[in-house]
Structures are given as structure tokens and as C-alpha cells.
Design brief:
Blueprint lengths: L1 H19 L8 H8 L3 H13 L3 E4 L3 E4 L1 H23 L8 H8 L5 H10 L25 E2 L8 E7 L4 H9 L7 E7 L6 E5 L2 E5 L1 H4 L2 E4 L1
Antiparallel strand pairs: 1-2, 3-8, 4-5, 4-8, 5-6, 6-7
Helix pairs in contact: 1-2, 1-4, 2-3, 4-5
Length: 220
């Protein structure tokens, strides 16, 4: 049982580092710990273990980045996760905002043959319900043609392509306001002094914090 638990922890770390590496080459250990909800001490201990296994590299005062093998393992878990999200939404009618948390529990328990059977059953979806690309079985990831909402100027807008990185708290907040992938969103105003964003979506007006806006990716 301990061995299975350790493997699951390793997979969670690799997947999370891969998610956070999208915006930067290296991921600070503090950011990794915050995302996983653990202490910096715990994160540092695991980083050393993963470095010893050749799954990541640690640069002092900068952070961590995945090795080729580490990224391969991270994408495998991510493929499992996003295929499960598709299954939960399409076949079991689970709420859009709930499937991320459910898939986090299910992503570690599939044999490769079962994963590919699931992909065939779902007709090989390219994105998860939150709009993020599903890695192929060969580890290829479709490039995103979108930018975060916080990079737009007032008066600009676009179709929501994805929510990234996902969290159950964020998805629930957006779902309550019907701000989901596929909907058109318009940035109406940005408050001064690093203030919030005023947006409209489906004829409704909302005020979003800058951190939330950074997780909403749009394409014009």
C-alpha cells in the first residue's frame, strides 16, 4: 500500500510541475507547494527524490523543470486525467465543475490498455471538458492558440477556449456564473492600481480578480 501511495504522489508532482511549466521554464518550489497544498519542506523533500530518480532537475534559487522522462510520465498521467474528465461529463453527466476533482482520484489506476480502450470508446477526443488538449498516446500535445484574459485590453474579447490550470474551487466559481469554454467573453474595464476586471459573458456582467482572469484563455 505504501508503494502505491508513493507512486501516486510522484505522479501528482510530475503532472503539477508540467502544468506550471507552461508559463515559465522553471517552477519555483514555493509555487509547486502552493498548487499541491503542501509545505515547502515537503515539496523540497519530494523534489530531491524525483531528482535522484532522474525525473526532474533542480536549479538552486530558480526552481525545478522536468527531464525528458519526467515529462513523458507527466503527460501519461495528464492523458488519463483528461480522458476520465470526458467520460464523466459525456457518459455519466457529471457537472463540468466537479469532474476535475473526480479525475484526480481516477487518473492513477488505469493500465495502458484500459486507457486506450477508453480513448477509442470516446472517439479520441482532442480536448477535455475545460478545453485543455489531451496528450496523444505518443506524448504529443496540440499547441494552444489562445491568450489569457488578463492580457486583453478593455473592449477586446473572444471565445473562451480553456480554463488552465483547473481547480475545483475555480471551476465552481466560474460555473456559478456560466463562464465556460465555448462562450464569448468581453473585457469591459480594468480598475486602476492593479484592480479587478469587469467582464460580460452571455449578457451578464461580472467582476473578476486578476488571478482568476489569468486562468481563462480566449481566442478572438
Amino acid at each position: 500500500m505504501r508503494h502505491e501511495s508513493f507512486n501516486e504522489s510522484v505522479e501528482m508532482y510530475l503532472k503539477t510541475i508540467n502544468e506550471l511549466m507552461i508559463d515559465t521554464d522553471t517552477v519555483p518550489i514555493s509555487a509547486l507547494a502552493k498548487r499541491l497544498g503542501v509545505t515547502s519542506v515537503s515539496a523540497t523533500e519530494m523534489v530531491h527524490k524525483l531528482q535522484d530518480q532522474g525525473l526532474l532537475e533542480h536549479e538552486s534559487y530558480k526552481g525545478v523543470l522536468l527531464t525528458k522522462d519526467g515529462r513523458k510520465q507527466a503527460l501519461r498521467v495528464l492523458r488519463n486525467h483528461r480522458l476520465w474528465e470526458c467520460f464523466l461529463v459525456r457518459q455519466l453527466n457529471q457537472p463540468w465543475e466537479r469532474v476535475h476533482d473526480l479525475a484526480c482520484r481516477m487518473e492513477h489506476v488505469l493500465d495502458p490498455e484500459v486507457v486506450e480502450a477508453l480513448a477509442v470508446y470516446l472517439n479520441h477526443p482532442e480536448t477535455c471538458p475545460h478545453g485543455n488538449p489531451i496528450p496523444t498516446v505518443d506524448g504529443e500535445v496540440m499547441p494552444a492558440n489562445s491568450i489569457p484574459l488578463n492580457e486583453l485590453k478593455p473592449g477586446e474579447g473572444g471565445v473562451i477556449m480553456s480554463i488552465h490550470p483547473e481547480s475545483t474551487l475555480l471551476l465552481k466559481y466560474l460555473a456559478e456564473r456560466n463562464i465556460k469554454s465555448g462562450r464569448y467573453i468581453l473585457l469591459e474595464d480594468i480598475a486602476p492600481l492593479n484592480g479587478p476586471f469587469t467582464i460580460s459573458c452571455d449578457s451578464q456582467t461580472y467582476v473578476l480578480g486578476r488571478e482568476i482572469a489569468a486562468h481563462i484563455f480566449v481566442a478572438s
